[in-house]
Amino acid sequence: MWPRFVRNTSDRFEARFSLVEVTQSPSLLLQGMVGSQMPIAVSHGEGRVEVRDAAHLAALESKGLVALRYVDNFGKVTETYPANPNGSPNGITSITTESGRVTIMMPHPERVFRTVSNSWHPENWGEDGPWMRIFRNARKQLG
Fold first, then answer.
1. What is the mean pLDDT of residues 40-56?
2. Which GO terms describe its cellular component (predicted)?
3. How far is Cα 25 from Cα 98, in angstroms, rounded to an integer?
């Protein structure tokens, strides 16, 4: 059921901040974050989601296995470069399993879990940025 991650449509290595939205999914890492739109580090040359066919894409969507999507500066899901740095269909950048125990993603939340790692942040973030939640969720699930 997993898609492949293949060369970006830009045919380049992309390294920047992009905006993603956490979607409703069974992902244990992303519990309690649904609807959040947050900046995240992107750093890859092969990040475009490639599915076998339209039925494969429809199955991922209908089973609610898409965990993150790229959104534009208006908060709308996008396939348009540069808001979607790799050209993935439906802005998909993360997939999870039906159990939610395995989640794969191309962006790098581990690079922006501290507030100081972000170029800008609201004053109310404190020391930890919003991506710290996935690490706390992982500890909760494993501990």
1. 96
2. cytoplasm
3. 8
